[in-house]
Specification:
Elements: E1 2-16, E2 19-25, E3 29-32, E4 37-38, E5 42-50, E6 58-67, E7 76-83, E8 92-100, E9 105-106, E10 110-118, E11 121-132
Parallel strand pairs: 3-11
Antiparallel strand pairs: 1-2, 1-5, 4-9, 5-8, 6-7, 6-10, 10-11
Length: 141
Amino acid sequence: MIEVKALLLCDSANVREGLLGVLAGGITTINRPSYPAPLLADLALSFLISGVPENGESFHITVEGHHEDEASEALFGAEVDLDVGYVAEARLNTVPLVLSLANAGVPKAGIYTIVVSANNEVIGSLPFDARIDPALPSPSI
């Protein structure tokens, strides 16, 4: 079984020696001078794997961004196969993951929800607010 234990939109994140490093995590609002605009953020996740995984076991992780006006249509996303067959033979294991959403397109202002699924089952979600601030310079990638 897999659960999301941490789900943070952040300026930057990395995984080193099984540890999740997060810089400026917990973003709930992005401000841009206009839209469409890039998200310019990483998504830091920590999964809890309960039970002893079988050798070669994996979870297909999908991340989709939805705007409140088009809740059924994914406007940006990412996919990865998370191999957990290597984790220690323990009943509880954490597996960190970082997905770069820096170039994810945010088409317009409003409330978005990032939805995380494992093997087509929703296991977590995270809302954020995209706002217009015309006084800001255009973001550079």
